[in-house]
Amino acid sequence: MAKFKKKGGKGTPEISTASLPDIIFMLLFFFMVTTTMREATLLVRVTPPQATEVQKLEKKSLVDFIYIGPPLRKAMGTESRIQLNDQFATDIKDVREFVELGRSQRDEAEKKLITISLKVNKETRMGIVTDVKQELREVGAFKINYSTAKKTIAKK
Amino acid sequence: MARPVNEINAGSMADIAFLLLIFFLVTTTMDVDTGITRKLPPPPTEDVEPSKVNNRNIFKVLVNKNDRLLLNGKPGDISMLKIMAKEFLQNGDLNNEFRPDDMPEKKEVDIPLLGGKIYITKGIISMKNDRGTSYNMYIQVQNELAAAIRELRDELSSDFFGMRFKQLTDRDKIKAIQKAVPVAVSEAEPEDIGGH
After folding, report:
1. Where are the domains of chain A?
2. According to CATH, what is the number of the domain A50-148?
3. Which residue has the higher pLDDT, B99 or A80?
4. Is 60 exceeded by the pLDDT of residue A133?
5. Do A115 and B40 touch (CB under 8 A)?
6. pLDDT score at A153
7. Where do the domains of chain B lie?
């Protein structure tokens, strides 16, 4: 009978938490690999238009972003402005500097592969976009990408 | 004498890892960027005459400041654009140079993978927008034109290689299709028309 005697000490045994850090580290590495650093804090409101023929933007390290849209701060008016990195462009010529800066941060071999992604609010008028495109042409940044969201609903 | 080394308490390791994890969650983004990729033409040079293109080879798409479309001189709707662009850009019979007068001319190109010398259209879609056009409309027009070209490529690709253009993996085949159906969309030099 003594064989089946219950062992002493009722309370539940403590769960070992020794592997908890490992689990968290795994999560951490997962996020480090799958995400990219946020490029800039947005100062303008950008709701991209939708399109069906979208392509994925490859090689995010080779992409520079230009944001165009109405400022988030109401005090600055509702007219669309250009945002380069973390500040507003005061002049359209600032786009050139921005492109040059982007080039100087890359290796010689990568300079040709830089894509400029235009993140433009859908209500923005084309005038300002055309101006930016003309500047980009002047400095020889020909690869551009119009940022659009993918439209998933099929047409009737 | 050797003292027994105390084990370091690893209990807070999880907290440190958590902190790092939260830091990364906050500072990074996971969204995939998508968009329509285009190549800008080099800036025009003063002394080069703009190349003369026969009128029947151009399909004009104009967008005004009220987002209305003018397709080859007639008011049109965005829903017609893809069909009209497709009709205009199609190569038709690749082995025949003949074209009716209302269709763009053809030129001879040599693409071995598509059967050697073939005739492809010289048609170009010329797009022009006003400064007051909304960006959304501009993208919709670009999108419809891109869709027209994609469908033409798909058709050609399934005729020759039995699969859609996107599914092709052979670089030479991709090149061949791209050559036979180029992205023939040109944007007119911007002009200040006024009225916006």
Report:
1. 50-148
2. 3.30.420.270
3. A80
4. yes
5. no
6. 59
7. 55-187
